[in-house]
């Protein structure tokens, strides 16, 4: 069963460097939900990359900021954990675990939505699931 609050995020529009309900990118969505629903206040990183298409900058940023995150064992994920995915051969896309196999995420051209991270589309791109431990 998915939490009721997830419906308030579905349909948020994509906005490059967005960090609010007016629009978010993938990190902005994770940042917003973790802050509002889990009282986890993370760095924005909005100034850490040029655009969401900049694979090398985002990959470098992700790799440099992993210290406060602990990898979650398979089948140990819970709502609020972050799914880290590879795009363009870099760790550069994130979604938020909402329920077993389900993530809330956003991409350019696609408003915030629910998708299965264990689907054929995403399964081979998942690098790991992480829980904030900072």
List the helices and strands and how they pair.
Layout: E1 19-20, E2 23-24, H1 26-38, H2 55-64, E3 69-71, E4 82-87, E5 90-99, E6 102-107, E7 110-116, E8 126-132
Antiparallel strand pairs: 1-2, 3-8, 4-5, 4-8, 5-6, 6-7
Based on the model shown, name its key terms.
134 residues; alpha+beta; endopeptidase fold (from Nostoc punctiforme); 6-stranded antiparallel β-sheet; two-stranded antiparallel ribbon; 2 helices; 32% strand
Structure description:
By secondary structure, this protein is an alpha+beta fold. The chain has one domain (4-132): Alpha-Beta Complex (endopeptidase fold (from Nostoc punctiforme)). It has two helices and eight strands. The protein has helices spanning 26-38, 55-64; strands at residues 19-20, 23-24, 69-71, 82-87, 90-99, 102-107, 110-116, 126-132. The strands form two sheets. The chain has a six-stranded antiparallel sheet with strand order 3-8-4-5-6-7. It is globular and about 35 Å long.
């Amino acid at each position: 069963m998915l939490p009721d609050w997830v419906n308030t995020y579905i349909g948020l529009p994509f906005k490059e460097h967005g960090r609010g309900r007016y629009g978010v990118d993938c990190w902005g969505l994770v940042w917003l939900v973790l802050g509002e629903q889990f009282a986890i206040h993370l760095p924005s990183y909005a100034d850490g990359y040029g655009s969401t298409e900049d694979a090398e900058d985002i990959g470098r940023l992700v790799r440099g900021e992993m210290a406060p995150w602990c990898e979650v064992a398979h089948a140990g994920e819970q709502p609020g954990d972050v799914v880290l995915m590879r795009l363009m051969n870099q760790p550069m896309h994130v979604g938020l675990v909402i329920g077993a196999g389900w993530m809330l995420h956003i991409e350019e051209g696609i408003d915030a939505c629910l998708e299965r991270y264990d689907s054929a589309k995403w399964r081979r791109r998942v690098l790991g699931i992480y829980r904030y431990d900072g």
